[in-house]
């Protein structure tokens, strides 16, 4: 009998960078997560920038490594999830802890980590577990590069906005 539940394996502590070497910064007070140029001094604080990447054991490694993201901002923990809003999938950070065990392999907090391209083993893309072909990415919104979910139009398409590295 195969178990469909995910149980936590390990936690990596990492900064997430986009293709422009900007760091992902979470600002819950503004309800936004965006890639920004940050100073060394700001990086030292790590506030809203240093992510815990929760890796889970899986019985289906071909889908990619199941991960969940959390971050600490001003002594509070937030986890990344996706929610439908006005018919569109939105990336949100909700206050709380990432569960140790997740009852099913698909959850609104689980993403499958895959290498970005076969020749780029240090860069990754993260596919949303509840919607095949939807990946974490950034989109320009004014001066902001906001974290979002984006659909790949073709399986073999290379979209630099989905390229994330640690």
TrEMBL record:
Its main location: cytoplasm. Keywords: Cytokine, Cytoplasm, Secreted. GO terms for biological process: cellular response to lipopolysaccharide; cytokine-mediated signaling pathway; immune response; inflammatory response; positive regulation of cytokine production. GO terms for cellular component: cytoplasm; extracellular space. Gene3D superfamilies: 2.80.10.50. Forms a ternary complex with ligand-binding receptor subunit IL18R1 and signaling receptor subunit IL18RAP at the plasma membrane. Mature IL18 first binds to IL18R1 forming a low affinity binary complex, which then interacts with IL18RAP to form a high affinity ternary complex that signals inside the cell. Interacts with cargo receptor TMED10; the interaction mediates the translocation from the cytoplasm into the ERGIC (endoplasmic reticulum-Golgi intermediate compartment) and thereby secretion. Belongs to the IL-1 family. This is Interleukin-18. It comes from Psilopogon haemacephalus.
